[in-house]
Amino acid sequence: MGLPNDALLEQIETMAVRFARGAGRIVLGYFGADVEVNYKSKGKADPVTNADRESEAYLTAEIGAAFPDHAIVGEEGARVSAGKPEFTWVLDPLDGTANFMNRLPVFAVSIGVLYRGQPAAGAIFVPSAKSSQGTIYHARRGNGAYRDGHRIQVQREAEIGRTKLVSLPGNHYRIFTLNGHLRKHSGEVRMSGSIAYEMALTASGSFSYCVIWTPKIWDVAAGVLLVQEAGGAVYARRPRSHRWTPLEHFGPTAAALPADLTQLSNWRASLIVGQPGVARLIAENLRRLPRRKPGGQA
Known about the structure:
Radius of gyration: 18 Å
Number of helices: 8
Number of strands: 18
Number of domains: 2
CATH architecture of the largest domain: 2-Layer Sandwich
CATH topology of the largest domain: Fructose-1,6-Bisphosphatase, Chain A, domain 1
Strand content: 25-35%
CATH class of the largest domain: Alpha Beta
Strand order of the largest sheet: 4-3-5-6-7-8-9-10
CATH superfamily of the largest domain: Fructose-1,6-Bisphosphatase, subunit A, domain 1
Distance between the termini: 43 Å
Order of helices and strands: HEEHEEEHEEEEEEHEEHEHEEHEHE
Mean pLDDT: 89
Helix content: 25-40%
Structural class: alpha+beta
Shape: globular
């Protein structure tokens, strides 16, 4: 499946960086202050703040003005589409809301742009100790990955050692195990609380690999492209599948447009991203644990 010409993708990448910077200013303006919090699920799960909502409203308005013929899917409910547009912007206006609420500066604004379901461009804003304006990770298909305009790449060494940092879900020991020597030598685990943040760190070589269990599409749409363009690999495992396969698109097939925005919103898969040799090794040795029935029985 072909992509549009590079000049168009460059324009889209440039605008994605600009929008990510603008949304970053919005969320930084709220950081450290008392924010209004609501919850999307029972038991005070899935918090959403006025920073989330204002960031998404800003992104939706800016994208709509610059690219009126493109579709938009946002975590906080944005759904903009006219017919079946070839480009879809996938937005996470504030990934890591729980961190943000608790004044932990580990969060992100994620903007992924899909062309017929294939990652084509993206930008991720994260806070930075070096700049009060934050940092932007960005990429477009076929042009490499960058942090504030400086080229980045995944780790070069295809090995997992005790000093290598990796990212796993907090409850990974209940979900999967690794075979053989990887069971005890799978790397030094870190958990940030923001998937987009972790994928940016994987693309820039801080993490050797990252396992992401059943994320939403807005968590990973930008990060997938960043990792791939930084020289990394992305493997996906769809629900009810036992195989990890390279992720090339988010649509139903590589040649078809997604049927509608609801289909994209309902996309589900688990991912392994990272240094190509390491990601492949993890995919070959990761075993899903049996689900436990009520009462603790498998």
